[in-house]
Amino acid sequence: MATERPVPDKLRVFSLNCWGIRFFSQHCAQRYEMIGDLLDREQHDIALLQEVWSERDFLFLKRKLSSSHPYAHYFKSGVIGSGLAVFSRHRIQDALLYQYSLNGHPYMLRHGDWFGGKAVGLVIVDVFGLKAQVYVTHLHAEYSRAQDEYLPHRIVQSWELLQFVRHTSCGADVVILGGDLNMHPQDLGNRLIRAHTGLRDCYTETDTFDGCEDGHTLIAVNHFTKKQDLIPFEKGIRIDYILMKGSKKVSMKCESLSTTKGSVAGKPFPYSDHEALTAELTLLQSEESRQHGQRNISDSHTAVSEQMDVVAEAQAVVKEGLCHTETLQARALHLMGGALLLLLLPLLMILLPCLCSCSHFSFTTTGLLLAAGAVLLLSGLLLYLLFTTHIKVLKETEDQMKLTSDDLQSKLAGSRASGFSSSDGSPESSSPFKREE
Amino acid sequence: MATERPVPDKLRVFSLNCWGIRFFSQHCAQRYEMIGDLLDREQHDIALLQEVWSERDFLFLKRKLSSSHPYAHYFKSGVIGSGLAVFSRHRIQDALLYQYSLNGHPYMLRHGDWFGGKAVGLVIVDVFGLKAQVYVTHLHAEYSRAQDEYLPHRIVQSWELLQFVRHTSCGADVVILGGDLNMHPQDLGNRLIRAHTGLRDCYTETDTFDGCEDGHTLIAVNHFTKKQDLIPFEKGIRIDYILMKGSKKVSMKCESLSTTKGSVAGKPFPYSDHEALTAELTLLQSEESRQHGQRNISDSHTAVSEQMDVVAEAQAVVKEGLCHTETLQARALHLMGGALLLLLLPLLMILLPCLCSCSHFSFTTTGLLLAAGAVLLLSGLLLYLLFTTHIKVLKETEDQMKLTSDDLQSKLAGSRASGFSSSDGSPESSSPFKREE
Lengths: 437, 437
What we know:
Deoxyribonuclease I, Chain A, 10 helices, homodimer, six-stranded mixed sheet, globular, EC 3.1.4.12 (chains A, B), alpha+beta, 2 domains
């Protein structure tokens, strides 16, 4: 068994979707004041914020937290921004942003996710001399659970998130991911992320939880929540998370997790329409990392099977998304055809003078037809380009999932033939370069 | 000194910009036939192709190379695609795509880079039991060296490329990057990539080079090259590269590098308007990786200084790009203002009947004014959104560069105070968690 030596190093991580849409979100300025006070008082090691849509609000927090959290990064992308911000008591050494390739539709103005340029931000933080890779993200919202037209988008985002985490975290001592995933705990995207990154959900990992029932982060008793958005989950839903994993060198334990409970003592309204999460993580140094690593090998077969199942589910969703997007692409083509007809009509009116006997009729109608035709043609063209790029993204995701699926299949076949013999579950190689554990 | 034990494992890597624009690039189908024959005959371990714009051409190559290169991946992004393809004799285990955030302007139809969705593709290849991370990329073209309006775009792309490589390659045994960087060897972006990733240029690393003078990959004697594009570099330029680096476990040596020389024996035209590169890499297993790692420490101070200088240069370019984009954003606003005036004009014509005395004049003019106004308003809005996202990207890059610069500064300060004592150049930490070498 691994010898774990407890050290005094704890890490307190905070995550909150701030609902910071200026001039739209209620009591925005006052709430940022409250959030700033909370962070300044609580002195979390790392605070991960989402929906900080205005840079001015980020700068306000940065000034307010200059002594408690001297390090901060605000991730900028899309038209409005990613809304993602990190405040840290420890030095941020580096930052990297991965903008999701698929993120709703620009014409869905009332949803507006597209304009946010949703992304996953990574900051590399030097925590007690350890390399902590801290990810903050916000995935596309779910506007209707019964008819979720954005499901393929969220699955592609989950896939890109897990791929990004998987491939950037290999040198990390400690990995933390926080944010608003807009998915229930057992939703496909969530299972996909957990199964393929090895990240563990602080809520299910901790023995000490203090917060809303079932860990809900969107609850009916919150002043700002629209009750109809929660139907059929009257009590609430859990869509905000802090996930974590250690490394061969350091193992992590979630000592406790808490959420706010829909109100703030002495204040007339809560911090946001979401509840905030605070996780207290203990870092344990594994002296026998090799032995510790070995502990995971025994269940690799099950893990690989689970990974395969969840990828297969995701492949089906992406395939469906692809069919739907191809239909939309065809409709954009039809729109362009219709627009061309509209543009031809005025020509017909000139050629058939009888229709133009009333100059007032011609004057108004021709102008409107030309204007409408031009706008529709341009819109059709833009929609066609948009759906074409979406198809490209969906196909790329499909191909990547196929590769992963094939790789898992060969691992499974290898494990059947000889048993898992390397720590990452890959079969032994016959190469002169043997992997060192 | 490190004991390096040569092993028989060699790796032959091929890179070519295929210039595969269907119905535009000359002799496209015949050239793909020739490229397929070449790859099938030469049996390179890994072939990295760029500008494979049509998926049909990729599928043609895939069929043709099904026995010589059973593994392939085609990266899909943007409207047309990324144009990036990988063919491999070794199993591709996984793939990941990072699309560059800044890639020209959609309205520059004659340049067309924007539609390509330029990106860096990563495939993870199991080579002789080693984890090889192979990157293929194609950066924004340089249309005028004297007045390079896309320089900030290419610098942002270089930055994103180096960040992506830096953060995804930490678990690799072997790292290879190939592609058309559209930069001369000593151009800023190229220096930025080399300094911050540690990747080494096969051309400067090898003792055995066989190819065009000075390693040029775009040469005047190539049948397809537009001679005016090369001015003032009459003989040619070197913009295609194979870069490489090893790891603590494996060191790499470029045994030889060759290029095609503008013609193909027995054929009336060359493979492409670019020359192809072939690198023969030797993999050496470092038994004393710790000692081997130590070898790099002595020059860390110089390396950090160089990294700082090159980041400072890049920051200046990004700053300039930001100013220029802000001007463009303001112009888009003016365009929208002008369009609104155009839309108001027909209203004035209705209110001032004297102007409408000639019905034919009104009929045509009003229609055109309305159509032009609508199209200009929509165009102005789209341009405004476009430049707003570009500003976001430039600011994000600026922030990331600032973080890196600060981090390097603190490393330099640390090295002055105590000397570099850890292999990655970071000063010793006082943490209970000491980094293990």
